[in-house]
């Protein structure tokens, strides 16, 4: 049966469960933004539950498999930034949460360490509910800003791009957008209900 043991090398520490690891010194290093564990003087990997702290104070707590972050876990960075969810080969994959204290929270799908799929970001500036592709806000989205402006429609790299509906202070615009601006033909309805058709083009 596996038993909890503690090993240390220089400023690095690992506290958790080990399986099939000989009694040899272990060297651990941070080789990317996500914690990667390497074992010196042994080809046998470590697996199970544990907590790993790197020299910069980044802490991973959760499941390991064959010396890598695999399974449910959490990462805490100096300053309080936290990330927790499912990890696969040292990167968060599937559903996960990232919290920037006092700034924003993102809950959604991840792929190889970046937002990819459906996600919800909330913060001081407002909220974004929609699609992500390779870490960028791209696809269909519903966006609400702190000043009351709302947008529902297509986005590309975080900007209104394509068909969409924007509402602000009782007025509504339904039409095309490009790079965050009105573009093409759209229908504008003011706060009093007056409707007009407008045409826009890039400067």
Compact description:
The protein is mainly beta and 203 residues long. Helix content is 0%, strand content 63%.
Q: Report Rg.
A: 24 Å
How many helical stretches? 0
Mean pLDDT rating: 80
Strand content: over 45%
Shape: elongated
Helices and strands, in order, run as EEEEEEEEEEEEEEEE
Widest beta sheet: strand line-up: 1-2-3-4-5-6-7-8-9-10-11-12-13-14-15-16
Alpha-beta classification: mainly beta
Could you give the distance between the termini? 71 Å
Counting DSSP E segments of at least 2 residues, the number of strands comes to 16
Q: What's the helical proportion of residues?
A: under 10%
| Unreliable segments of 5+ consecutive residues | 1-45
Give a quick account of the main beta sheet: strands, pairing sense, barrel closure. Answer: 16 strands, antiparallel
What does this protein look like?
It contains no helices and 16 strands. Strand 11 (136-145) and strand 12 form a beta hairpin. With 203 residues, the protein is mainly beta. The chain is 0% helix and 63% strand.
Task: Give me some keywords for this one.
disordered N terminus; single chain; 16 strands; 203 residues; mainly beta; 16-stranded antiparallel beta sheet
How do the helices and strands line up, and which of them pair or pack?
Elements lengths: L3 E6 L2 E6 L30 E6 L5 E7 L2 E9 L5 E7 L2 E10 L3 E8 L2 E10 L2 E8 L2 E10 L4 E7 L2 E10 L2 E8 L2 E9 L5 E6 L3
Antiparallel strand pairs: 1-2, 2-3, 3-4, 4-5, 5-6, 6-7, 7-8, 8-9, 9-10, 10-11, 11-12, 12-13, 13-14, 14-15, 15-16
